[in-house]
Amino acid sequence: MKKYLTVFASFVIMLCIGSVYAWSIIASELIKGYGFSATQSQVIFGTLIAVFPLTMIFVGKLSRTVKHRYFGYISGILFFLGYFLAGLSNGNFLLILLGIGLLAGIATGFGYWVSLTLPVQWFPQKKGLVTGIAAAGFGLGAVFMSVVAEKILLHANTVLQLLKIIGVAYGAIIVVLSGFIHQAKAVSDEKRKSLVTTNFINSNIFKKLFVGIFLGTFAGLLIIGSLGLIGSQYNISNHSLVLGVALFAIANFLGRITWGILSDYLGASVSISLALLFQSVSILLLIFISLTDFSYITISVLIGFGFGGNFVLFAKETAQIFGVQNLGITYPYVFLGYAIAGILGPLSGGFLYDLSGSYSYAILLASLMSLAGSLLFFKQLFTSQKNENTK
């Protein structure tokens, strides 16, 4: 029963901290109501995305001496403090950056670490499926956030009031659910120490995983952070903008589970190649198809489905290569690629828009980055096949 409670609690915690993927809704309100530039709105989003993988490295080191459920408690408290501070900011950029970018970013790191690593340790034979389920919660978080945001904002509330409500409600849920998290039996400290003291970061597979997740998430985060703004540029209705973000998140959720299941049969490398290629083509449709409400929503779904693969496939491959029990130590280093992408992706999108007045260049850049990631792993597959044939 403990392992199932752990998976359930982890999934719900991921739902809460995954609300960041509805950032484009908040960004639009900050731009309209408080004079934020597109670049400023993406600095906040990018800071959160950068901070939480860095936090995961720190949490991985703490995990040897601290009960893992305490990480969930810390996550809930910091999440509340960050969002509530942003809600009290009166639209001050630095306070919102501190509250959401830094405090909520740290909260996300604590919550993501415990919610991803523990379920996989309980089900080592189903790494793809269980990693997919855990990661899927993070992707689905934007759905609930989108619905809540739309209802609250429609009742003449400001985005700052929305941030307060989210902070109180989600922070409390994270704290309560953390009490249902249980640890699986861990490997010895000697084995963990042996792994850390080896230079696994210098291995070719680590470099490919690091670069691959950077390229894939750079593309996806650039689009996610500006999805609502891209739709606004083409006069998509407000309802469709919100619906597009929500359905993006649902597709992201389904993509994580689907790619996870596929990877258990096809292997992670093949699945990574296919997922990044799918994401690249889907992003490119934004500038090659005339955007209407229907086409905007459809393309949002396709991009979300491809993007979801990044968060299960790289984690699954890391666990496969370096060991399930060492996932909490090794994966945060792979995830640093996501941290860098979290800064450069959204900032590139905001900068290119402010520079040109259009998202076309940003969309093209995102598509090319995802394609590069796909080709990187196709090359690895080709090389592996060639080596097999020469044996």
List keywords for this structure.
391 residues; mainly alpha; Growth Hormone, Chain: A; 16 helices; globular
Biggest pleated sheet: none
Give the CA-CA distance, first to last residue. 47 Å
Radius of gyration: 20 Å
Number of strands: 0
Count of individual domains: 1
Q: Could you say which structural class the secondary elements and strand pairing correspond to?
A: mainly alpha
Task: Give the averaged pLDDT, no decimals.
Answer: 84
The CATH superfamily label reads MFS general substrate transporter like domains
CATH hierarchy, class: Mainly Alpha
Percentage of residues in helical conformation: over 70%
Number of helices: 16
CATH architecture: Up-down Bundle
Series of H and E elements:
HHHHHHHHHHHHHHHH
Q: What this model shows, in words?
A:
With 391 residues, the protein is mostly helical. The protein has a single domain (2-390), classed as MFS general substrate transporter like domains (Growth Hormone, Chain: A, Up-down Bundle). It has 16 helices and no strands. The chain has helices at residues 2-17, 23-34, 38-62, 68-87, 93-122, 127-154, 159-178, 189-197, 204-233, 238-266, 268-288, 293-308, 310-322, 327-334, 336-356, 360-390. Helix 3 runs antiparallel to helix 15 (336-356), helix 9 (204-233) runs antiparallel to helix 16 and helix 10 (238-266) runs parallel beside helix 12. The longest helix has 31 residues, at 360-390. It starts with a helix and ends with a helix. The relative contact order is 0.16. The model is unreliable at 187-193 (pLDDT under 50).
